[in-house]
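Pilot study result, target chain (269 residues):
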Amino acid sequence: MTPHSTFAPLGPNAPETYATVDAAVRDKLLSVAVPTLSAVMFSKGLHSRFFPGSRPLNKAAAKFCGAAWTIRSIPIREDLRTQISNGTLPSRNRLAFDAAPPGSVIVCGTGSHPQVSMMGDIMSTALMVRGVAAVVLDTSVSDAHFVSTMPFPVVAAGTTSVSSFASLMVIDHDTPIGLQGVAVFPGDVIVGDENGAVCVPRHLADEIADAAIEQERLEVYVLELIRQGAPIDGTYPPNAAVLAGYARWREERSAGEQRGCERREIDPA
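Predicted structure:
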């Protein structure tokens, strides 16, 4: 038996089976903040959807939405690392990242190893050029001074110059993974902004997006009340009286917007 006889073939490498996020759903998700999405999912019993230990390197290029392309890593086995290094085994790291379809969000779960780097400036550039939407890692990145200036969203646990190959090896991709306590299934919708990133179950994405949009409308009204001196208790979360006031406020705004549309139709100038 050879030392790597149990090293199973790499998983499916078939981007043609990959489904992008519906454009209308993506636009709705991008219109709301990640904390709002997290709060809405929490209210629906989804308590572990936010990646708590990773933050965007470049907050000016932190907004993204795409379907998860999952990559799973395990602790390194030294004999296999030697064979990968001398070319007798393929590098699953490169193969798994290369397989990510355009528009996808790469989500790489390692069991949380912020002391090592899964990627740096060269891989980030390659992924950006190929049209990958973003990367979410529970490791650090190297060359952070460069990556943090790129117009490419990278959400990571920190920065370091120590290669992940010191302790990790990619073993599979396009399979369910765990990342910082979040279960991520292939195709789940990953949304990010300057606050971090969140994982939305694919079949709930449209429902969550609509609820988040409504939640942010409500919070606009609540903020107006708070600025006017309303107490926090009863105002947020809103009690029945505040919700009734919000309903009237929405009706008034809708009526005003409708009157504005009618005036524009009569007199476009």
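One observation from the pilot: The chain has two domains: 15-208, 211-266. A full batch analysis is planned for the follow-on phase.
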